[in-house]
Amino acid sequence: MAFGYIGSMRTKPGRRNEVVGILLNGTDGLRAAGCQAYVVGLSDSDEDVIWVSEVWDTKEQHHNSLQLAAAKAAIGRAMPMLTGEFTSQGMTVAGGVGL
Description:
The chain is α+β, with helices and mostly antiparallel strands. It has one domain (2-92): Alpha-Beta Plaits, CATH 3.30.70.100. The protein is 27% helix and 38% strand. It has 3 helices and 4 strands, in the order βαββααβ. Helix 1 (16-25) runs antiparallel to helix 3 (69-78). It is globular, with a radius of gyration of 13 Å. The relative contact order is 0.32. The model has no long low-confidence stretch (mean pLDDT 95).
């Protein structure tokens, strides 16, 4: 079964759109790295929170994707705009629409 990840991050006030742009700009190599789905969402109740949902072929591919040069560069650009408040949850994906 596939590996799923759901996480949230809090941006500094007024920086959410910039971080979303960084997250969505760096998606070109994800499919080749084993990503089946990558969704960036905006909290409806908090204007500084971003949710990211991902589905990967394996947990290892998710881990390895964070070592890609493009991912490291995107993280480096986004980190100064984040507060350091993160949530994360890994899971085994049983199935769903689009997978």
